[in-house]
What does this fold into?
Amino acid sequence: MGGLPSNERLEFLGDAVLGWVVADLAYRRHHDLPEGKLTDLRKSVVNASTLAEIGAEIGVGPCLLLGKGEDQAGGRSKPSILSDAFEAVLGAVYLDGGMQVAFGLVERLLTPRMDYAAQRLDRLDYKTVLQELTARLHDTAPVYVISDTGPDHQKQFFATVIVAGNAVGRGEGRSKKVAEQAAAEQAWMALSGSSPAS
It folds into this structure.
């Protein structure tokens, strides 16, 4: 980008601030959760998918300075770019406003999501619950079809989950696991209202 600095150093800082604040919030707000569940809770909100949602909500996309090709390819709405940009914004907020301001920003944006996730921690592993559901409904296991785009250092993965010959969920993420979980969640939501007779 013509010698302009990238956001990578700010992303590094924002990622660390995010990890600290979310751990603090999880610990203080959810006294009943053991360490393993606290880790699950943190993972439920500190991931590319959630951070991209937040980045989109606060309007980061239109503010990004992107290369012409990336811009034309829809980079302003790409989850991997939005999640990185949100971390960079958080790093900048921390540098500019200090710990309390950064803490308040994360608390405001992520607490509702954390509280929601805490109520469904038993459902966070959607691949497992989907497998149980499809075994019950269709006496079969879900099949995941994976594809990816992008260079090795910045791959984006896409997963489609197929149950009984039908595509019932799609997801994407920066790893196969994240993409499969997102697809499994969508599939589980779609199928969990089904009756065994359907």
